[in-house]
Amino acid sequence: MPRTKAEPLVALSCRGRLSEVRPALADLRAALAAQTGGACAEGLDSVEIAVAEVLNNIVEHAGPSDRRGAIRIEVRAGACGLLVRVSDDGRPMPNGAPPCAALPALDVPCVDLPEGGFGWGLVQALTAELHYRRAAGRNELALRFACPGGGVAEPPDAAKTPD
Amino acid sequence: MQLDSRDDGATRIVAVREPRIDAAVAIRFKDLMRAESGDAPPRVVLDLGAVEFIDSSGLGAIVAAMKQMEDRTLELAAVTPAVDKVFRLTRIDRIFTIHPSVEAALAAPAG
Description:
The complex is a heterodimer. Chain A has one domain (10-145): Histidine kinase-like ATPase, C-terminal domain (Heat Shock Protein 90, 2-Layer Sandwich), CATH 3.30.565. In chain A, strand 2 and strand 3 form a beta hairpin. Chain A has helices at 18-35, 41-62, 119-126, and strands spanning 10-14, 71-78, 81-88, 129-135, 138-145. In chain A, helix 1 (18-35) runs antiparallel to helix 2 and helix 2 runs antiparallel to helix 3. Chain A is built from 3 helices and 5 strands, in the order E-H-H-E-E-H-E-E. Chain A is an alpha+beta fold. A 5-stranded antiparallel β-sheet of chain A has the order 1-2-3-5-4, with helices on one face. Chain B has one domain (3-101): STAS domain (Transcription Regulator spoIIAA), CATH 3.30.750. Chain B has helices at residues 26-37, 56-67, 81-90, 102-107; strands at 3-8, 11-16, 20-21, 43-47, 53-54, 73-77, 98-99. In chain B, the strands form 2 sheets. In chain B, strands 1-2-4-6-7 form a 5-stranded mixed β-sheet. In chain B, helix 1 (26-37) packs parallel to helix 2. The model of chain B has no long low-confidence stretch (mean pLDDT 95).
């Protein structure tokens, strides 16, 4: 993923608590909407859904943290889409990598239908690139969204209908 | 988290009065749905018209709600764009009958 030294479009942080996920997502969406003039609501949906899954995962698995800045979110406009970097001060990912992104199978009897396990599959499906690294005692996830931000003129991706 | 329900013939319409079904409310949603379905007619339609956002926890809670329906059916109605996106990407849209509106659900045969 190309690194950019430009100032982020959006930078925000929160504690690693479930109660802070909703407000952080609302702040992120409002800031992005202001940057993009409200264009590309579908792109904003994609970012919000993917970042929600990442934040839920941090709060649930990396461990709760009451430190301010436990979670940091930065968004930059890259040449080929929106770059979102989410870092946290929690435990590293097991095996040094994000979990399996395969979506759970649905061709099973009703009683066996999965009630979870959709999160990473969603993140994978919504992003063009996804990278994880552990650096300076923090987890860093870098997500690239093909949908435009910061005035990059591309149509929203409509090619993801499964049928 | 608040659900409102009304019966129309053999169908119960359960409307979610909440803009988000996410990790913060998923368990509450599942519990409220269990209470709604206890004495429900054979068909339950979940009106998602007010729900603007769902995450994987909320999605799991809807699947859980369907599984606790026993011999009733759970159908969905009035899905908004971001929720539809999550349904499509996870392919959950293939296991639910989804109606464009509550009116369309009531006009459709039970499925």
